[in-house]
Amino acid sequence: MSRRPTVVVPVYNALDDLDACLASLDRTLPAASPVLLADDASTDPRIEPLARGWCERSALAARYLRRESNLGFPGNCNAAFADTGDADVVLLNSDTVTTPGWLEQIARCAASDPRIATITPWSNNAEICSFPRFCEDNPVPEHPDAVAEAAAGLHPAQYPELPTAVGFCMFLRRAALDQLGGFDAATFGQGYGEENDFCLRAAAMGWRNVLCETAYVVHRGGASFGPLGLAPNGDNLARLLARWPDYNERVARFIMADPLRTLRGRLQERIEALARSGPQRDLFG
């Protein structure tokens, strides 16, 4: 398998969520895994010492970079893409909690097909990649690691096609970034819609956007855009639809067909089988 992707955590305030995210990376990534904390000029003065202190203590190959001024989410991500050389990357929101084996599963998915541009894992709160209830903000499971263990056993993996990645945890292949040019910061400003636009551009050029059904990452939700008062609607959605008039139709067709239904059922069955065979119960309590 090729070298590990660099995990990029875009940071903007949200101290407690960031602290929990970094602790989960320490717990779930192999030593010396590359991690970049990309701070988009956080206004909370506690962020920098927390991030720098973690980088110094962590066994991971972790770096912290702070922007001199706020670039907005797409601009911050593009700068991070430039800061990571020629590596593939995984954009990981600071309001996530990772589980054992998550990055290895995503890397295995990426290695399965060089035309995969983006990869999204399952999560409790990931729109079309939500589990157990599709397109819902499910509660954080009581035992996320058990859900991840069950997901890792979904073999042979299918890596089904998605109309778009979901940005809470999003693998991006460097070759696709090089060809497509990263996110469109000029159009999408402070953020929202840039990952959808990237995925649509990728698909138009013959790349694939897929689900890694063998990986699971918790997404608390709300922290990444909440401090900026942004919501998934309004001007940026209008800009996305101006460029891709059939976007809503594509997503609606996917939701109506629900091609992930069978995979969600298989995952639920594996969770229940693991619960019967071990001490853990009520995994979604």
Q: What overall geometry do the principal axes of the alpha carbons give? A: globular
Number of helices: 11
* Radius of gyration of CA atoms, rounded to a whole number: 18 Å
Q: Can you give the mean pLDDT?
A: 91
Helix content: 40-55%
CATH architecture: Alpha-Beta Complex
End-to-end Cα distance = 37 Å
| Order of strands across the main sheet | 3-2-1-4-7-6-8
Q: How many domains make up the coordinates?
A: 1
* Record field, number of beta strands: 9
Tell me what the structure shows:
- GO terms for molecular function: glycosyltransferase activity.
- This is Glycosyltransferase family 2 protein.
- It holds the Pfam family Glycos_transf_2.
- Belongs to the glycosyltransferase 2 family.
- The chain is an alpha/beta fold and 285 residues long.
- Helix content is 40%, strand content 16%.
- The chain has 11 helices and 9 strands.
- The strands form 2 sheets. Strands 3-2-1-4-7-6-8 form a 7-stranded mixed beta sheet, sandwiched between helices.
- Helix 1 (15-28) runs parallel beside helix 2 (47-57) and helix 5 packs across helix 11 (261-277).
- The model is unreliable at 223-230 and 281-285 (pLDDT under 50).
Give a short synopsis of this structure.
The chain is 40% helix and 16% strand. With 285 residues, it is α/β, with parallel strands linked by helices.
Write the layout of secondary structure elements.
Blueprint: E1 6-11, H1 15-28, E2 34-39, H2 47-57, E3 61-66, H3 73-83, E4 89-92, E5 96-97, H4 102-111, E6 116-122, H5 144-152, E7 169-172, H6 174-180, H7 185-188, H8 194-204, E8 208-216, E9 218-219, H9 235-243, H10 247-257, H11 261-277
Parallel strand pairs: 1-2, 1-4, 2-3, 6-8
Antiparallel strand pairs: 4-7, 5-9, 6-7
